[in-house]
Amino acid sequence: MSSRRIFARPARFAAIAPYVWMVLFFLVPFAFVLKISLSQTAIAQPPYEPVFELAAGWEALKAAFAALSVDNFRLIASDDIYVFAYVRSLTVAVTATALLLLIGYPIAYGMSRLPKSWQAVAMVLVIVPFWTSFLIRIYAWINILQHDGLLNRILLALHLVSQPVVWLSTDSAMYIGIVYSYLPFMILPLYATLAKMEPALEEAAGDLGAPPWQVFWLVTFPLSLPGVGAGVLLCFIPIVGEFVIPDLLAGSNSLMIGQTLWLEFFTNKDWPVASAAAIVLLVMLLVPLLLYERLQKRQLEQGR
Amino acid sequence: MRKVSRLSRFNVAALALGLAFLYLPILILVIYSFNASRLVTVWGGWSLRWYHEFFNDRAMIEAAWMSLRVAVSSATIATLLGTLAAVALSRGERFRGRTLFSGMLYAPLVMPEVITGLSLLLLFVALNAERGFWTVTIAHTTLTMCFVAVVVQSRLGSLDRSLEEAAMDLGCDPVRAFLSVTLPLIAPAIVAGWMLAFTLSLDDLVIASFTTGPGSTTLPIRIYSEVRLGVKPEINAICTLVIALIAVVIVIASLASKLSSSQGESAAPL
Question: What is the pLDDT of residue A100?
């Protein structure tokens, strides 16, 4: 019976409303970012006039194109603050993602070895913090990491340190915050691939005489690579643009690109340069974004 | 040879430490919200003092109310649009612009919020829209409908299509078949999607900061500006209330997905 086909037509009509919405509120805004980044230079003040008058037709369009300039991009490339911010964002994201993988993998692995009914419980336990507000979770860490906070009290009581350690406004605090916030994003895809894995493969490797570390390194880990890829991308991309965690935990000595963008936008009110910086960030993330989309698609197809 | 052991001591330790790492900070926060002392770190006995303080803080209450209204409206619109998108993607097969459509739906899931917020602000400024409740709601809808679409789509993917086909063989037109067979079966995922959209909106700071106007502040924006000035015990109380609210939401969502698994289908992923 070809009822699938019959169903497909009205289902396609279902796309209209969300399609229009996403074009209006997701795609079109990027055109505005691009336009502003390419046009008005630093002297221009918001609010800006419309991009171009459609009513004025072709002439207005030509004039708009003639006014385009790449000055803002040139400024970013020559400005140390921006260059450093991009480099720092990438460094932080690479380091944090590596930490997340190191910490998340054993947890996901442990989850996948639990009895089936316990696996569901463990999964809920990992998801729940993801539902809990991230701002609150960062704030919880401020409580713990501050000068007379719990961490220093414990360290002092155990005589591990003789004086309170400065935790807040350091990079370690920022990494703790990032790892804490993104851990569920790393664990879940890892767990999904590890749980689907055929245990017989590991058993076979063991039967053939491989010690446990070899079983892990030659069988388990290679088979879990799709999960590793999804987890790494899912964490890396948003961390590059992270604003709140470094702002609250890392202090202001060296800014990530998200913070620089925010400052440029709200404090300096230099919208053209901020827009240009956003475009550069987006282009930087385009490769991992496309990789993520492909992975997502492949996994959906496998799931069918 | 022996079997490779399924659950070693190392696994158990990793799991226990991981869960402790995830939950201890939140637990400490909740406990300290009942602290009588003004100093956040000195324990001065149990007290509801900071909850009183919160309920007398007009600005905070207004921000909380604004957040709730935005969360309910954006979650509702997002659930409608997200469900439609999921149906189109999983049942519509090929249609023009499908790749662009699914790309647009996945991108906001991972894209840095600063970019999404900034681009929406520029759009609203260009449209000369007055910023406030509606602009934040639209922005949150755009973000959260993508999450709804993913949740509902994965449920639709695991659904047995022969049920829909049987309904149509029995004379239902496609729309009828969808409403009377598919929709009840994916209802738990739709509920879970709404809940997820609700909590995401309640939580969002960055996009709301870009798209809101003067005079309409959401709770995260207020909390954020307070936290930047230093730790205050009142914040502990507010955070605990938010956690309690989200806990209720999670319980409802998990009941919904349990309902779906008792219908003989695998549970929704969230």
Answer: 96
Rounded Cα distance, B248 and B211, in Å: 28
The H or E element containing residue B116 is helix B113-126
Q: Do B19 and A125 touch (CB under 8 A)?
A: yes
Type of residue numbered A69: S
Under DSSP, the state recorded for A217 is I
Q: Cis bond leading into A47, ω under 30°?
A: yes
Rounded to an integer, the average pLDDT of A48-52 is: 49
Beta-bridge partners for B35: B46
Measured CA to CA in angstroms, residue A259 lies from A65, A72, A81, A86 at distances of: 31, 18, 11, 11
CB of B9 within 8 Å of a chain A CB? The answer is: no
Q: The pTM is what?
A: 0.85
Q: Does B239 touch chain A (CB under 8 A)?
A: yes
Alpha carbon of residue B218 to chain centroid: 16
Cβ neighbour number for residue A98 with a 10 Å cutoff? 13
CA distance B188 to B25: 31
Mutate to test the interface with B, among A5, A22, A219, A220 (most CBs of B within 10 A): A22
pLDDT digits (tens, 9 = 90+) for A81-123: 888 899 999 999 999 999 999 999 999 999 988 888 888 888 8
* Chain B nearest CA to A239, separation (Å): 8
Query: Both tokens of residue A87?
Result: 């480099």
Three-state DSSP state, B232? coil
Task: Kindly state the tokens that stand for B243.
Answer: 């956690």
Residue from A235, A236, A253, A255 nearest A244 by CA: A255
Q: What's the farthest any 2 CA atoms get from each other in chain B? A: 74
Shortest CA distance from A289: residue in chain B? B107
CB spacing of B122 vs A122 below 8 angstroms? no
Nearest residue to B223 (alpha-carbon basis) of A268, A138, A239:
A138
Cβ neighbors of A27 (< 8 A, separation 6 or more) are B104
Helix (H, G, I), strand (E, B) or coil at A254: coil
Select the residue of A12, A127, A209 nearest B270 (Cβ to Cβ): A127
Q: Please answer whether residues B243 and A132 qualify as being in contact, where contact means their C-beta atoms are separated by less than 8 angstroms.
A: yes
Digit-coded pLDDT (tens) for B71-107: 999 999 999 999 999 998 888 777 778 888 888 888 8
Please enumerate in sequence order all residues whose Cβ is within 8 A of that of A256, keeping only pairs 6 or more positions apart, or say none.
A85, A88, A89, A92, A240, A242, A243, A246
B76 and chain A in contact, CB less than 8 A: no
Checking if the pLDDT of B34 tops 60, the result is yes
Which residues sit opposite B46 in a β-bridge? B35
Angle between helices B133-157 and A271-303 (to 10 degrees): 20
Q: Let me know: does A300 contact A96? Beta carbons within 8 Å.
A: no
